Amino acid sequence: MILPVSNPAAAVRVTPLDPDAFAPFGDVIQNPSTHASKPDLESVAANQGSATKWLDVTRLDNWYEGRCKSGQKAKSVMNMFVCKPRELQKKDGVHGVFPVRILERHPFTPQTFIPVGLGADDARTCYLVIVAPTLPLGSQKRDSTNMAESPLASAYPPSPPRRKRSLRERLLGSRPNPFTNDFTLRTTPSTAISQIHEPRGPGLPDLANLRAFIARGDQAVTYGPGTWHAPMVVLGERPVDFVVVQYANGIGVEDCQEVEINKGLNVLIESGATNLKAKL
Ligand SMILES: NC(=O)N[C@@H](O)C(=O)O
User: Fold this and answer.
1) Which of 1, 106, 129, 179 has the fewest other C-beta atoms within 10 Å?
2) Residue 142 pLDDT more than 60?
3) Residue of 77, 104, 247 to test ligand 1 pocket, by largest number of atoms within 8 Å of CB
4) Contact, 257 vs 268, CB < 8 A?
């Protein structure tokens, strides 16, 4: 089932994939000793000293239990996606334009894409990571789509009845956090790292804050659980193979949800944003 959503945002420019900038959406997996931007990771010596083992480079938590409506157990799955390069539209002064027409999310699982066989400095091929925050429920009144009544809501148990906020909560200005679970009213600051790893809520994508990152062959990416993202976009000359790791329980609406963006939302790939020599 694809839900139509309207597109309020102007074009979005791609920026290089960086762990800090991507942190609200998930993890960038890269070797801290060969990248300028270093995620805060610990390492130990391994393999008789011939290897450095970086610990916990990403998280793979199963959030189905107690959260998905069917109660169906999920198992870990590893698939391979062989992604062909996408056609770009042309525009003066930029390499090209990719119109994002579909966003999807996996409400109860992170999903890790690991490119294999794509060189760090491959000047012919790279990939885009396109993500959007989740709107709090109830913020889509202007949209023709009422999420609470949409087919996507059938993945989630009914939300608890709305209660009046206490004076303390009102004074603290608490509001649902778009990067975590909308059902949980929080009164504490939302920066704690553990909250970032919780599933995003059931709201629609916040298209006004969509982000697009350009990734190199020596970077893998984990979309946090429930993070809205575009289906993988490879740019350049040849297909890229990705090993993809996630949980799934076989119930369509609980494993993957999609929305279709009216008219598409343009991502601009500017000449300076990529080391691609290939003609896009
Ligand atoms: N991200 C992507 O390309 N596709 C998926 O998330 C999928 O599960 O189909």
Assistant:
1) 1
2) no
3) 104
4) no
Among residues 133, 76, 147, which one has the least CA distance to residue 108? 76
Instruction: Tell me if 111 CB under 6 Å of ligand 1.
Output: yes
Beta strands in the chain (DSSP E): 2-5, 12-16, 26-29, 43-46, 51-54, 75-83, 89-91, 94-105, 111-116, 125-132, 211-215, 220-223, 228-229, 233-236, 240-248, 257-269
Q: How many domains does the chain have?
A: 1
Ligand 1 geometric centre to CA of 76 (Å): 15
Contact (Cβ atoms closer than 8 angstroms) between residue 103 and residue 203: no
Q: Cα-flanking dihedrals φ and ψ of residue 252, to 5°?
A: -45, -55
- Where in the sequence is the domain holding 239, given as residue range(s)? 2-34+54-273
Does residue 41 form part of some domain? no
Ligand 1 centroid to residue 54 C-alpha, Å: 27
Tell me the CATH number at 18.
2.60.120.480
**Helix (H) / strand (E) containing 21:** helix 19-22
Q: What's phi and psi for 68, nearest 5 deg?
A: -80, 150
Q: What is the ipTM of this complex?
A: 0.95
- Which residue is listed with tokens 């930029």? 94
Residue nearest to atom 9 of ligand 1 (CA): 231
- pLDDT tens readout for residues 183-212: 333 333 333 345 578 999 999 999 999 999
- Rounded CA-CA distance 102/42 in Å is 37
